Task: structure prediction
Amino acid sequence: MTIMDAGLLIGGAAVAGVVNTLAGGASALTVPLLVLVGLPGNLANGTNRVGILTQNAVAAWRFRAEGVPGFRAAVPVILPIALGAAVGASLISQVADATFQRLFGLVMILLMLPIAFGIGSDPATPRPARTRSAPVTFLIFFAIGLYGGAFQAGVGIALLLALSYTGHDLVRANSIKVVINAALTLVAVPIFVLQGQVAWLPAALLAVGFAIGSTLGVRLAVQRGEAIIRPMILVAVLLLAGRMLGLY
Result:
């Protein structure tokens, strides 16, 4: 790990922390950065989760301090999210590095399909409040947890899309999202640790950058609201597209 590598990880994670706090999908940046500095695919995936956990925990705390708490609204979906995350992390931690990298690329393509058909813009426009039955809500958030436990990249966008159907504005939806994402990642991290798939020095460097980025992201969200969140969702989409096209 060189000084340049360390700076790359901290700087990249700081940018990713802003993007993840305001939208999602920035793991499509940080996982390739970890691979770039020499980590194999599955080790990069596990290591990235430590930074993601830090980012969401800091963001949840900062949203609360800014008067936009998300914990109470997140509580009803924590159980299906946690169960899905445990299953997803357990399954992906058993996959070989080369297979993981191929799966990650495929996931990036699949994530782009709803964007290509215009569904990806939905989180930027709050929908009228809708109610779902308890089983449907459980299945939706279990599926998001399953995906997030396995891959993480883009799970924030999926959460924003799901939360937008309940009528939350983007600032409130983001405050709820980071609480849910923190719970999801808190379940996944021990699984990767037990599998020996966390490199602690890169993880610590990512955590520093993510903490910086999430603090800035919350401040921007509260002060500028949807005017900054909408463009950041576009940035997140472009990051996913860049990963899909192999640009980084």
User: Anything to note?
Assistant: The CA atoms of residues 18 and 104 lie 22 Å apart. The two ends are 20 Å apart (CA to CA).
